[in-house]
Known about the structure:
Blueprint: H1 5-8, H2 11-21, E1 34-38, H3 45-53, E2 62-65, E3 78-84, H4 90-101, E4 105-110, H5 113-122, E5 126-128, H6 139-154, H7 158-169, H8 172-187, E6 195-199, H9 204-217, E7 222-226, E8 245-250, H10 255-270, E9 276-279, H11 285-305, H12 314-324
Parallel strand pairs: 1-2, 1-3, 3-4, 4-5, 6-7, 6-8, 8-9
Helix pairs in contact: 2-6, 2-7, 3-6, 3-9, 7-11, 8-11, 9-11
Amino acid sequence: MKYQGDSLRKFSSQILFALEQYKSPSLDINQFDNIILCGLGGSGIAARITKSYFAEISTKPIEVISDYFLPKYTSSKSLVILSSYSGNTEETLLMYNEAKSKGAGIVTITTGGQLGQLAKEDGFPIYAAETGFQPRMALGYSLSYLLLIFGEFFGIDTASQLKSAASELSDVDRYIDAAREIFNNQIKHDLTGKICVVADAFSNPVALRFCQQIQENAKAEAFLSELPEANHNVIESYYGQLPGHIIFLNSGIHLRTNLRFDFIENLLKEEGNHPIKMQIDHSNLTDYLEKIYILDWISLLIADAKGLDSSNIRNINSLKNYLSTN
C-alpha cells in the first residue's frame, strides 16, 4: 500500500477509461476458427481471466500464449489479440510479427511502444491504455478491453456488467478493509512461509493473479494448485502442519469439485492447518473482480508488513537489461 497503493486505487477508473475509449473492432468472429490471446506477466493475466470467463460461452477455441512463438495451427483463420502494456515486450513483438506473416487477424492492447507503432503502420486495431503504471497494476485496461471485445463477439452485455463493477470498486476503502481483515486475522502471524492457492478451473486465473502479485509485490514464493488435478498428486504433500498459508478459491462450478474442496479442508484441519476460504460467484463479474481486488490489496499489506518496496522489481529489470545486451 505504501508504494503501489495509489496505482491500485485507480482500478475502477481504468475500467471506466476502457469503457469510454472502446470502439468495436468491426470483426466477424465467424470468419475465424480460433482465438489466440498473447501476453506475459501483468499484460497476460487478463487473457487468462477472459478465457476462463468465456469458457462456457465461446463457440471458438481460445488459447493463451505467454511465449516467443504462436501455435503451429495459427493461420489466416486465426484471430490473434496481443497485449503489452509497454508495447516493448520482446516475446509479444515476435508473436506479432509471426501473426502478421501468417495473415492472421490482429488486435493490440498497449500504451504504445513498438507494438503500438507496428499496429498503427499495419492498420490493425489498437486499444490504448494510460501510461504511468507498472504492468501488473494496469489490469483494468487490458481486462476491460478483452471483456468488451469478447462480449461483442458472443452477444454478452459486458459493458453494463463492467459499469456496475466499476461503481462498486470505486468504494476503495471497503476492499482495503476486507483485505485487512483477512490479513490481520489469518496471515499477519506468519509472514515467512510460502503461500499456496487451491483453485478450480474457473477461479484458476484469480489464483494465478494473486500468486503473481505475492511474487512481485511481497517478494515471496506463491504456488497454484488446481482441482481436480491436484488431488491426483499435490494432496500427497499434505501431511503435518504446513509452513505458510493455504488459500481456497472455489467458484462452486462443479459439485464433484466442491466435494474435493471439502475433503481437503477436513484433511488439512486434522493435520493442524487452517486454510483461508474465499468463494467466487462464477455467474457474477462484479464478484469476480472484487475477489481479484481484495487479493491485490492483501499482497500489498504483506509487502508493507515485511518492510518491502513493492514497486522495486530489481530482478525483473536486471533480466531485461541482460536480454537487451545478449
